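Action item from last meeting closed. Structure (316 res):
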């Protein structure tokens, strides 16, 4: 039997059932929820395939494997995999490219609306019996005719643009590589300076860490909103907190954090003008099913010696 190991620090019954229900003939599965490296090594050392949801795959883990052919991410982020170690051992790394683009785009629009409409505080106060519309009247906004600046026009950025246009927003983008698109391009400086809503949607790498720092946030309008559904650390949290706390910008919607799970004393948790979600933009039942099916298809392709889709292959 060919062994597939599923690694996830937040594994639940739905994930396990979905994998077992779609497991190809001739394969067996092992599941590891632990974040402890030694426990993960004990589980994966004889694995032929790894399905990775959350948690890290280190060089030590990769080097402990004797038969590993493929590390298959169920999401699209790869900053939790030692790609150099995988390359040195000739182990393929793949993602289900674009699998959660629609989900993240929908969540991005959700955060925009929640911030603009002050949804969390309205809900909180009403549940306490407080019928107060003053904050919404003075700070609430519409998306209609606002300028949206998308930082990173990949698959997710494109899906966000489609939905923003349906809200009658004017959409612009910045990307390190200009795209063949009808969406107008702006430099990052102009985008931050001129747009009402900024959505950050770039992958995390050496060039994008702290891409949005105090200098960049200072360029933004006082009534601007910042949304980050990419990765923690791309927007500097300390700089963001200072801007929100001083009302230098109107608000923010954040799904990703420098430390995950978020630290209980993270100062962002104390602010009223930020909407926070626990890295769930790309997570729902539909995405899970599609991701597992696509990942197992890639496993079968590797096992049968077929080429993977070029968009799914990760190379360094």
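Sequence:
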């Amino acid at each position: 039997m060919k062994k597939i190991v599923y690694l996830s620090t937040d594994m639940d019954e739905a994930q396990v059932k979905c994998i077992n229900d779609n497991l190809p003939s001739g394969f067996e599965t092992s599941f590891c929820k632990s974040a402890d490296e030694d426990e993960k090594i004990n589980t994966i050392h004889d694995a032929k395939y790894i399905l990775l949801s959350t948690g890290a795959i280190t060089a030590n883990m990769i080097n402990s494997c004797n038969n590993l052919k493929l590390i298959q991410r169920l999401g699209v982020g790869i900053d939790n995999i030692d790609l150099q170690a995988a390359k040195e051992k000739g182990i393929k790394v793949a993602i289900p490219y674009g699998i959660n683009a629609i989900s993240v785009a929908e969540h991005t629009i959700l955060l925009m609306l929640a911030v603009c409409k002050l949804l969390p505080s309205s809900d909180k106060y009403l549940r306490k019996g407080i019928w107060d519309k003053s904050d919404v009247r003075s700070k609430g906004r519409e998306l209609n005719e606002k300028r949206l600046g998308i930082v990173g026009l990949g698959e997710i950025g494109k899906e966000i643009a489609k939905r923003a246009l349906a809200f009658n927003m004017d959409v612009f983008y910045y990307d390190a590589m200009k795209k063949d698109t009808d969406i107008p391009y702006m430099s990052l400086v102009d985008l931050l300076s001129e747009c009402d809503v900024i959505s950050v949607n770039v992958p995390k790498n050496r060039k994008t860490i702290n891409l949005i720092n105090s200098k960049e946030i200072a360029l933004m309008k006082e009534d601007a909103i910042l949304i980050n559904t990419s990765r923690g650390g791309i927007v500097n949290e300390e700089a963001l907190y200072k801007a929100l706390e001083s009302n230098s910008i109107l608000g923010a919607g954040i799904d990703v954090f420098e430390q995950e799970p978020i630290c209980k004393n993270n100062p962002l948790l104390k602010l009223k003008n930020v909407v926070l979600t626990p890295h769930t933009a790309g997570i729902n039942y539909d995405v899970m099913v599609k991701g597992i099916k696509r990942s197992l298809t890639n496993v079968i392709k590797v096992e049968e010696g077929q080429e993977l889709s070029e968009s799914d292959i990760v190379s360094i």
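Note appended to the action item: The chain has two domains: 2-99+284-303, 101-276.
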